[in-house]
């Protein structure tokens, strides 16, 4: 069940990232997040109310801290998605997001069975393979230099990795309320970023307008929030290292959707990465 829920979280994250990136391309990262984040907050608030439990200071504080890191990650991630190929940005971010929780889990004494450990290692290799950037990226992006794209994606991944670790530290004694705290943290960071841009007299960019674009933004935020809930359940039923790695397989979905929608070419190494990912998931499931 842990594997199924973690992969479901990866699916939700992957679709959410693609949709959010699509909205950011039509507008800006901040404009997209002003729709996505409140939608996600509404989803997790309803889930927490239905799930029982009550908020308590400690877990909520961990949740808010996790959300602030996650919010910073979302801003940098959406900006990278808007400016560069999703097939490069998403996997680079995911690789950085997976490594930190694995390191923390091992430091805490987590031990995996041999087959599961091999599966986890294969998943990490798969994320790395899918992350490999083509040598002609500059030409393929019509002159938009992406030298900073992978760096921005890596920064977002580190923020997401911190989010994963802090959310696990919040515990599950308060039901889903730490996730609500995390969404509050998201809102605070996005609001601070908006105020910063406005205070400097700069434009936030084109409005997110039209039923389709607004619908995509709301769906992206809802799916991201749902993935947060699934990850929270998984990480408190299983190991941090295992939950984070399986959840971080989400770029496979983003890459495939980008291939369909934007005709972003899947390189041979990325195809190999997807096969390796399937092998890793199979080993984790059997183990």
SSE layout:
Elements: H1 2-26, H2 29-51, H3 57-83, H4 86-107, H5 114-131, H6 137-140, H7 149-169, H8 177-199, H9 211-235, H10 240-247, H11 251-262, H12 268-286
Give a short summary of the structure:
79% of the residues lie in helices and 0% in strands.
Largest sheet: none
Number of helices: 12
Low-pLDDT runs of 5+ residues are 135-147
Note the gap between the termini: 12 Å
Assign an overall shape: globular
The counted number of beta strands is 0
Rg, please? Answer: 18 Å
Strand portion: under 5%
List SSEs in N-to-C order: HHHHHHHHHHHH
Q: Residue share in helices? A: over 70%
Q: Which class best fits the helix and strand makeup?
A: mainly alpha
Compute the average pLDDT: 84
Describe the model.
The chain is mainly α. Helices cover 79% and strands 0% of the residues. The longest helix has 27 residues, at 57-83.
Question: What key attributes describe this structure?
Answer:
single chain; globular; mainly alpha; 287 residues
